[in-house]
């Protein structure tokens, strides 16, 4: 049964998945049962079924996903307008047996509202410089990078802001997060 949710957000190419991996490894090394999921995974899985697309390819950072990104965002918004927590519930349902679940891709106020109201949680924003993001392959796409899916949490008050800057040591920040989570279990 899920005891704690770490809800992570950040801009494209900020390093959300990398930081998720580090937090997961740190918690697991201390004997915590931990899983990582993405809200977008449940969205992409359903989108792929409906449109007869390759789900595995939609999970990559490649051109296949980019080809469908704008339409997936619109489709996801329509689904959320009917039930704002539909993809959050699906993500958690897939890892219900873990004590701690790291949700690697929160993008909306409603995502945080769901996790904060249903679980003990910690909200984290992964931040990186625009230069670092560009080094990681970021290119601004109108209609994507200025949409709610990228900007909806820009003014949110996060519990933790994790600075993921190239060449900077992440270990102290990861250990602080791990300590906070263990103290709350």
From TrEMBL:
Its EC number is 2.7.4.2. Coiled coil: none annotated. One of its GO terms (biological process) is cholesterol biosynthetic process. GO terms for cellular component: cytosol. Substrate binds at residue 164. InterPro entries: P-loop_NTPase, Pmev_kin_anim. Keywords: ATP-binding, Cholesterol biosynthesis, Cholesterol metabolism, Cytoplasm, Kinase, Lipid biosynthesis, Lipid metabolism, Nucleotide-binding, Steroid biosynthesis, Steroid metabolism, Sterol biosynthesis, Sterol metabolism, Transferase. Pathway: Isoprenoid biosynthesis; isopentenyl diphosphate biosynthesis via mevalonate pathway; isopentenyl diphosphate from (R)-mevalonate: step 2/3. ATP binds at residues 11-17, 136, 173. Its main location: cytoplasm. GO terms for molecular function: ATP binding; phosphomevalonate kinase activity. It comes from the Eukaryota. It is found in: Cytoplasm, Cytosol. The keyword Transferase applies. This is Phosphomevalonate kinase. It comes from Caenorhabditis remanei.
């Amino acid at each position: 049964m899920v005891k704690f949710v770490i809800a992570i957000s950040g801009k494209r190419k900020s390093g959300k998945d990398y930081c998720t991996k580090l937090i997961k490894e740190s918690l697991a090394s201390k004997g915590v049962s931990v899983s990582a999921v993405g809200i977008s995974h449940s969205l992409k899985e359903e989108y792929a079924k409906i449109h007869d697309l390759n789900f595995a390819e939609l999970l990559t950072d490649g051109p296949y996903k980019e080809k469908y990104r704008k339409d997936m965002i619109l489709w996801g918004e329509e689904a959320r307008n009917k039930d704002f927590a539909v993809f959050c519930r699906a993500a958690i349902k897939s890892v219900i047996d873990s004590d701690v679940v790291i949700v690697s891709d929160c993008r909306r106020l409603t995502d945080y509202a769901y996790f904060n109201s249903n679980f003990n949680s910690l909200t984290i924003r992964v931040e990186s410089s625009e230069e670092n993001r560009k080094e990681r392959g970021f290119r601004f796409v109108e209609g994507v990078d200025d949409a709610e899916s990228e900007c909806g949490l820009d003014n949110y008050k996060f519990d933790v802001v994790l600075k993921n800057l190239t060449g900077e040591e992440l270990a102290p920040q990861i250990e602080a997060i791990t300590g906070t989570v263990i103290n709350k279990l």
